[in-house]
Amino acid sequence: MAKVLYIDHEKCTGCRLCELVCAVSHDGVSNPARSRIRVLKWEAEGIYIPMTCQQCQDAPCLNVCPVKAISQDEELGRVSVDYNTCIGCRSCVSVCPFGAMNFNTTDRRVLKCDVCDGDPQCVRFCDVKAVDFIEAHDVSIIKSRKAAQRVSDASKKAADL
What we know:
Blueprint: E1 3-7, H1 17-27, E2 38-42, E3 47-51, H2 60-64, E4 70-73, E5 78-81, H3 91-95, E6 102-104, E7 109-111, H4 121-125, E8 131-135, H5 136-160
């Protein structure tokens, strides 16, 4: 069964260590702009949301690539870019519904999560487990439990009124 990155934004503290680890792991530089994961921040609200490629089943980036530089690896459950074929047109960046495809102006190439070939470093260094690498079928179980908890909490709150 394929594994996926699971993001629990409620746990994220906004430390951005995942960004730094990703950039160092892939490019050898401590520069968040070169990361394949981005932490979106709403400082005033204290909300931090790590965003990364969702490895879509019917990936828009794959479908729009004019030179077929993007492919799907069923074994690892990821969408990959062949940098030898990529022409840097950025079509993939413009169609990604999650904003997870980026363009590195220094290297003049697109960036996207490759799940570190099955050993994502962002997961390894996230102490609060806001980013985890789990079996794909477990995601729906986790989300169902959280939804059930919210309904239970709302019912208790309503009963107290």
